[in-house]
Design goal:
Elements (H helix, E strand, L loop, with lengths): L1 E12 L3 E7 L1 H14 L6 E7 L2 E10 L2 E5 L2 H6 L7 E7 L3
Antiparallel strand pairs: 1-2, 1-6, 2-5, 3-4, 3-6, 4-5
Length: 95
């Protein structure tokens, strides 16, 4: 399954700041429809993501009815991204 969307980089404060992009309603709904086939537990879903010229593996985290894409430091540095930037993300889920 391939999905594409744009979103703002947001911060979640825990013991250390973590950066995410929220998956919009429509794409989160599509993920929800196939989650039982792709999750490996705790509701997290492995994906391959592409932002700009950077492709990386990560896991989506559930947040209410939506999912969050973690923004790894290596990706943010490679694409020169920071908090508040809007990015276009392509996700690939193995079905």
């Amino acid at each position: 399954m391939e999905l594409e969307f744009s979103g703002e980089i947001i911060e979640w404060r825990g013991p250390a700041p973590f950066y995410f992009v929220e998956v919009p309603d429509e794409q989160s709904g599509a993920i929800e429809d196939v989650k039982s086939a792709v999750t490996y537990g705790w509701g997290v879903i492995p994906v391959t993501a592409t932002i700009g010229r950077t492709t990386f593996t990560t896991s989506l985290f559930p947040k209410g009815d939506l999912y969050l894409v973690p923004m790894k430091v290596v990706v943010r540095r490679a694409e020169q991204l920071d908090l508040g930037d809007v990015v276009t993300i392509r996700l690939h889920l193995d079905l």
